[in-house]
Amino acid sequence: MSPAFLSKSKYLAGLQCHKLLWHHYNAKDEIPPPDVATQAVFDQGHVIGKLAQSLFPGGIEIGGDPKEFRQALQATQDELAKRLPLFEPAFQYKNAFARADILNPVAQDQWDIIEVKSSTSVKEVNLFDLALQRYVYEGAGLRIRNCLLMHIDSAYVRKGDVDPRGLLKQEDVTKDVQMLSPKIEPDLAVMSEVIALKSSPKVEIGPQCNAPYGCALIDKCWAFLPEDSPLTLYRLRKDKAFDLIHRGVTSVKKLPRDVVLNDKQSIQVGSAQNGEPFVDKKYLREFLKQLVYPLYYLDFETISPGVPLFDDSSPFGHITFQFSLHIQEAPGSAVRQEGFLAQGRLDPRREFLDRLKALLGEKGSIVIYNESFELSRLDELTALFPASRGWYNQVKRRTLDLLRPFRDFAYYHPAQHGSASIKAVLPVLTHMSYEGLEIGDGATASGEYLRVTFGDAEEGDRSKVRKALEEYCAQDTLAMVKIVEKLGRLSR
Ligand code: SF4
């Protein structure tokens, strides 16, 4: 049997994990499709790729069906002699196959390989990516001069149309790539053997499951772990957690004696062992004493596109597009909900800020779960609209971070499994949860908002997503109301 072809994406999968590589060739149907948030990252990469191409006028797109690599090989050969920039040209050498983002003709008969990434810095995986390309292209007979990585410059600030020359910066990584070159052929030989195995290689779970990318097979490979595995132990380094798992310790209830625990970890383990929540009533009473009515429970949602959508915004800068506010005037009184969800494609930040200022009043505590996120966004917004700076300073003095009692383990329930996030805390304190919501986390909220606002979604789809966004954000602030009520009862 002839050896399987390895494209650069498969080569990178093989570097991450042989089991993942094997599945790509032998059990592809077991690899789930990308979720909304991952798809949004891919879509962003596509947009940035097109911007990079615009820097090479006259370039030729090789195109074609990505799966039909023989067609792409032929199309590349047809265009090569023109000595023009080529986008996605395809080459094969031995059993490896690669398509550069851009192959640029230089000097008399040489080429530069340019790989475009939607990140803001060079990562080791990018160097391996380029090293494989160089191996294939040189093997196929090209003379490669330099290997360049084009990535986003986080210092860029949009003014008017996006300027690809400002947004993208190029780094010459030729020397780093050369250092990796000797590894390529031996790697490919080993990977070919892995692909040819009759059954999946045995690979223990480990840090590679999340680096350099979150592996799509995590749900399958980690299924044997109970919910209270050492990976959930609060702030335990992941390598230590994996060491414990490899020693056969799969539950925090059964940690060996040589594991030294800090105070918070001791509370977590004790709680897991006796099945009871831990409550520090005195802490909770002191915490709740700080609340000043009326109470404003506040939560933001943001997008952070790599290509800035608006003037005066930077790559991956947060754009606040939604907030929810639950207001309670006095202890025990009914709560009312207010909110904002940006309409249309214009920059929503000014309107977001004005609406928030109108609703937050002059006094009363502003309760936020993990306030550093919302305060950072207000800091950025009021740097953009300096007339609101004084208002922001006053808001900062009114905030109370509801994460604190949970991060300090003043309350801990074994079903939190080491997490102080609102998603973990809400179901253990109330009957509410995020399950069953169309949108149940912030990354999906951002991805869906971007898709239906700036993509070509149909009206029905758009209104459905907007309704789901309103439900999700309102859930976050109602959750805080319920959590404070419950903490009040627990503190007595
Ligand atoms: S989840 Fe981990 S062990 Fe499983 S295939 Fe992915 S990287 Fe390998």
Which descriptors apply to this entry?
alpha/beta, Lambda Exonuclease, Chain A, Nucleotidyltransferase, domain 5, five-stranded mixed β-sheet, 18 helices, 15 strands, 15% strand, binds iron/sulfur cluster
Structure characterization notes:
The chain is α/β, with parallel strands linked by helices. The chain has 3 domains: 8-196, Lambda Exonuclease, Chain A, CATH 3.90.320; 224-276; 282-491, 2-Layer Sandwich (Nucleotidyltransferase, domain 5), CATH 3.30.420.10. Helices cover 45% and strands 15% of the residues. The protein is built from 18 helices and 15 strands. It has helices spanning 8-16, 18-26, 36-53, 69-80, 124-139, 164-167, 174-196, 218-221, 238-246, 263-274, 281-289, 349-360, 371-384, 389-398, 404-407, 422-429, 442-454, 459-491, and strands at 60-61, 86-87, 90-93, 96-99, 102-106, 110-116, 143-152, 168-172, 278-279, 295-303, 319-328, 335-341, 366-368, 399-401, 411-412. The strands form 4 sheets. It has a 6-stranded mixed β-sheet. A 5-stranded mixed β-sheet has the order 12-11-10-13-14, sandwiched between helices. The protein has a two-stranded antiparallel ribbon with strand order 3-4. Helix 5 (124-139) packs across helix 7 (174-196). The longest helix is centred in the C-terminal third of the chain and has 33 residues, at 459-491. It starts with 7 loop residues before the first helix and ends with a helix. The model has no long low-confidence stretch (mean pLDDT 95). Iron/sulfur cluster binds at residues 16-17, 19-20, 203, 205, 208-209, 215, 217-218, 221.
